[in-house]
Amino acid sequence: MPIALITPEAFYDIPGPYVDLLKKGGFEVRFPKNPQFSRGLHTEEESIEELKGVSAIIAGGEFLTRTVIEGSPELQVIARSGVGFDRVDIEAATEHKIPVTITPTANHRAVAEQAFALIFAVAKNVVTNDANVRSGAWNTGLTEPIRGKTLGILGLGRIGRSTAQLGKSIGMNVIATETFPDEQFVKENQIELVDFEMLVATSDYLSLHCPLNDETHGMINADVFAKMKPGSALINSSRGGLVVEADLKLALESGHLRAAGLDVFEEEPAKADNPLFGLKNVVFSPHLAGTDKLSMVDMGVESAENILALFQGSWPDGAVVNDGLKDGWSW
After folding, report:
1. Domain range spanning residue 123?
2. Is 253 in the active site?
3. What's the pLDDT at 25?
4. The dihedral sign for the CA sequence 315, 321, 325, 329
5. Is residue 72 part of a domain?
6. Which of 239, 245, 258, 305 is catalytic?
7. Is residue 80 flagged as an active site residue?
8. What predicted TM-score, i.e. pTM, was given to this entire model?
């Protein structure tokens, strides 16, 4: 019987229908010995040990490096629960004929909701006001409006589109930069497509929704911050590596940027001595944007369905990152 390993930490608390799907499909289901395995804080040797005998993995945030992939000869499928795959060595997986799948339809609304939670938090001083009231202070200083402001979206994929719709629903002007836009969506939702320079120069709230790769790593840096609209805010619910945190700190300290809302960090889990934590004009969350109670179940189900499709000889079109493996691939 093939073995499926389920690693995302939240799945320990929500066993969910994905377990039943895999069992009914002929798999033995396992969870890692270390409940925090998906945080990616273990060694490659520990990963290889967890993957012994495993044919398919529903993966979280663990690093599936070339060494881990080459040390796991029985591994047939890597099913990422989410849309990011920067912690998987795609080249190594492809060389070893291992399809890497994602869950493109499961969590885009959850990420959009968290992006707006951060927007509301920085606009309305939610964290600061909460602390003031608890301490007995009664500061009724004016907060920033959101309606009528310009929301700039970098990346108009499923998550970016969901974020755009939320912005439009509360009266924001929405602009976006996207290489391959859905023209019908853009037209129906009255979104203005602009180049990157215009996006950063005119956005009151710049929300990042693009993948992390060699081209995008560190792209939001000192040069970009200098070009951003004075008094604007950066929102990042995508990947921490997109932003140079040291440059962000300087832009926030100078007052050129009014605020930031960050769900993701350059180093995760973030350490307590992260210099950004000393700033009062930043609101944080621990990389949970895509993982609310509904989206986690949906991601688990979609991941399980991807594994079962491949096991049964079907190719889950639209969900496989290294789609070039399709012709001639078999379990």
Report:
1. 108-284
2. no
3. 97
4. negative
5. yes
6. 239
7. no
8. 0.84
